[in-house]
């Protein structure tokens, strides 16, 4: 079955700097890659997703890139703000609608 | 608010007791999912429904767990004879198969279960 690896597990960046989180997946049939943000005591919130027919997608300060050949995908957050502090999860799905999550990255935005 | 809702938000129970959680999906979403999340981990898939049919169950779902979606709307997850290892956040998500955002799953706030 699908396995999603995510790193780093913890990331601290200065406010205003960029943050990058990287993931790899194992199942070449995976074609949908969502990213979720989870704040303490809340459920995961979808922030951006990308499908395998696209190599990059942007939404304001957030961008995601996908390299299907290498089975890598990454989340980029630019101009980080204090409210970006949270746990971020990458995930992959092969179209059966079952999503496999990475273990998460705890992002700290330092003042 | 028209998002996914879950009830209760917190549940504390003693080992051996039965518990039941409820999930109300986004209106008209035909797929509903249950996940379990333990501390420091990502959500793990448990089971999902398309309308009232339960289509897949994870090996994580032991015989003590049962889920239903009797009318294709809300769903319940019951855990019988709870064990301390069942302590976790139970998350529900829903999606619209065949809609403009196929496969996009929207999560509820979760039910945090503590088994003493």
SSE topology sketch:
The complex is a heterodimer of chains A (111) and B (116).
Chain A: E1 4-7, E2 10-14, E3 19-25, E4 32-38, E5 45-51, E6 56-59, E7 62-67, E8 72-77, E9 86-92, E10 100-101, E11 105-110
Parallel strand pairs in A: 2-11
Antiparallel strand pairs in A: 1-3, 3-8, 4-5, 4-9, 6-7, 7-8, 9-10, 9-11
Chain B: E1 5-7, E2 10-13, E3 19-24, E4 31-37, E5 44-50, E6 53-57, E7 65-68, E8 75-79, E9 88-95, E10 106-107, E11 111-115
Parallel strand pairs in B: 2-11
Antiparallel strand pairs in B: 1-3, 3-8, 4-5, 4-9, 5-6, 7-8, 9-10, 9-11
What does this 3D model show about the protein?
The complex is a heterodimer of chains A (111) and B (116). By secondary structure, chain A is an all-beta fold. Helices cover 0% and strands 55% of the residues of chain A. Chain B has 116 residues and is mostly beta strands. Chain B contains no helices and 11 strands. Chain B has strands at residues 5-7, 10-13, 19-24, 31-37, 44-50, 53-57, 65-68, 75-79, 88-95, 106-107, 111-115. In chain B, the strands form 2 sheets. In chain B, strands 2, 4, 5, 6, 9, 10 and 11 form a 7-stranded mixed sheet that branches. A 4-stranded antiparallel sheet of chain B has the order 1-3-8-7, with no helix packed on it. In chain B, strand 4 and strand 5 form a beta hairpin. Chain A binds chain B through residues 4, 6, 32, 34, 36, 41-46, 49, 89, 91, 93, 95-104, and chain B through 4, 6, 31, 33, 40-45, 48, 56, 91, 95, 97, 103-110.
């Amino acid at each position: 079955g699908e396995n999603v690896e995510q790193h780093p597990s913890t990331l601290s960046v200065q406010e205003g700097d960029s943050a990058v989180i990287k993931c790899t997946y194992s199942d070449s049939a995976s074609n949908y890659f969502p990213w979720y943000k989870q704040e303490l005591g809340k459920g995961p919130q979808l922030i951006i997703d990308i499908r395998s027919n696209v190599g990059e997608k942007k939404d304001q300060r957030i961008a995601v890139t996908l390299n299907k050949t290498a089975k890598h995908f990454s989340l980029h957050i630019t101009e980080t703000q204090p409210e970006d502090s949270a746990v971020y999860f990458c995930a992959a799905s092969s179209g059966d609608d079952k999503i496999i999550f990475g273990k998460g990255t705890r992002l700290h935005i330092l003042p | 608010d028209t998002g996914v809702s879950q009830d209760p938000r917190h549940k504390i129970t003693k080992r051996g007791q039965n518990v039941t959680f409820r999930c109300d999906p986004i209106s008209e979403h035909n797929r509903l999912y249950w996940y379990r999340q333990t501390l420091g981990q990502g959500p793990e898939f448990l089971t999902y429904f398309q309308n009232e049919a339960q289509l897949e169950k994870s090996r994580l779902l032991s015989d003590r767990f049962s889920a239903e979606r009797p009318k294709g709307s809300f769903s319940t997850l019951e855990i019988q004879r709870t064990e301390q290892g069942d302590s976790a956040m139970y998350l529900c998500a829903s999606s619209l198969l065949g809609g403009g955002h196929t496969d996009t799953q929207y999560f509820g706030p979760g039910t945090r279960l503590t088994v003493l």
